[in-house]
C-alpha cells in the first residue's frame, strides 16, 4: 500500500464522513486499502473471479459494519481480518463443491502434488513461480495457508498476524514452521533454495 500523503484526510476523518453518509469518503477508504485486501485475497484463493468477488465482499462487509468499527485495531489490520474470514468461507465453499462433484482421485485438492507448469529443465519465470506457490498453498490446511499468506506474502509481523487471526503468537510461529516445511517438500523439486518460502 502506498503511503498516505500528509495532506490527505486521515482514516478517522474519512470514517467519520462515511458514517455521515458521504459515499466519496468511503470510496477513498476503498481506494486506500484495496491493494492490501487484494493481495491477501489472491494469496488465499489465487487470482481470478473468485478472488475478485471476495475482495468486493470484504468491502461490503466493512461498509455494513462501519458503526461497529471502533478503532481497536488499525484499519488495514481490521480489513485484512475481514478479507481472511471471507477467504476462508470461500475455501470452505470450494472444498464442498469439489466433494460434491469430484471423486477423491479427481479432486484437484486431493493429490499431494501436481505437474509443474514447465518442464524441469526449463527456467522458471516469475509467473510460473507464482503459479507453483499457489498450487502448493492448495495443499495446506486453511489455518496454515492463512499464516503463510499473512507472514510471508503480505509481510505482516508475527504479532500482527496473531492479532488478525486472533490466536497467540506461539500458535502463529508453530503453524508457520509446519507450513513452510510442507511447502519446502512440495516446491523443492521445482524451485531453487533461494525461491523457497523462508521463515
Describe this entry's structure for a reader.
With 199 residues, the protein is mainly α. The chain folds into 2 domains: 8-104, RNA polymerase sigma factor, region 2, helix turn helix motif (Rna Polymerase Sigma Factor, Chain: A); 111-193, Winged helix-like DNA-binding domain superfamily/Winged helix DNA-binding domain (Arc Repressor Mutant, subunit A, Orthogonal Bundle). Helices cover 63% and strands 0% of the residues. It has 8 helices and no strands. The chain has helices at residues 11-19, 23-45, 49-64, 75-101, 126-137, 142-153, 158-165, 169-187. Helix 3 (49-64) crosses helix 4 (75-101). The protein is globular and about 55 Å long. The model is unreliable at 107-114 and 116-121 (pLDDT under 50). InterPro entries: RNA_pol_sigma-70-like (IPR039425), RNA_pol_sigma-70_dom (IPR014284), RNA_pol_sigma70_r2 (IPR007627), RNA_pol_sigma70_r4_t2 (IPR013249), RNA_pol_sigma_r2 (IPR013325), RNA_pol_sigma_r3/r4-like (IPR013324), WH-like_DNA-bd_sf (IPR036388). Belongs to the sigma-70 factor family. ECF subfamily.
Amino acid at each position: 500500500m502506498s503511503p498516505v500523503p500528509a495532506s490527505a484526510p486521515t482514516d478517522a476523518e474519512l470514517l467519520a464522513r462515511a458514517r455521515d453518509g458521504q459515499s466519496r469518503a468511503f470510496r477513498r477508504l476503498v481506494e486506500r486499502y484495496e491493494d492490501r485486501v487484494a493481495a491477501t485475497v489472491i494469496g488465499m484463493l489465487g487470482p481470478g473471479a473468485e478472488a475478485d468477488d471476495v475482495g468486493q465482499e470484504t468491502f461490503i462487509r466493512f461498509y455494513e459494519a462501519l458503526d461497529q468499527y471502533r478503532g481497536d485495531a488499525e484499519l488495514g489490520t481490521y480489513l485484512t481480518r475481514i478479507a481472511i474470514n471471507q477467504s476462508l468461507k470461500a475455501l470452505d465453499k470450494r472444498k464442498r463443491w469439489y466433494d460434491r462433484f469430484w471423486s477423491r482421485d479427481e479432486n484437484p485438492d486431493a493429490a499431494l502434488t501436481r505437474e509443474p507448469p514447465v518442464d524441469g529443465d526449463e527456467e522458471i519465470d516469475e509467473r510460473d513461480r507464482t503459479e507453483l506457490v499457489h498450487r502448493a498453498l492448495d495443499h495446506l490446511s486453511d489455518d496454515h495457508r492463512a499464516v503463510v499468506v499473512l507472514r510471508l506474502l503480505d509481510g505482516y509481523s508475527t504479532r500482527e498476524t496473531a492479532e488478525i487471526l486472533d490466536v497467540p503468537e506461539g500458535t502463529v510461529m508453530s503453524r508457520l514452521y509446519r507450513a513452510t516445511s510442507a511447502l519446502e517438500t512440495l516446491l523443492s523439486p521445482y524451485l531453487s533454495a533461494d525461491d523457497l518460502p523462508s521463515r
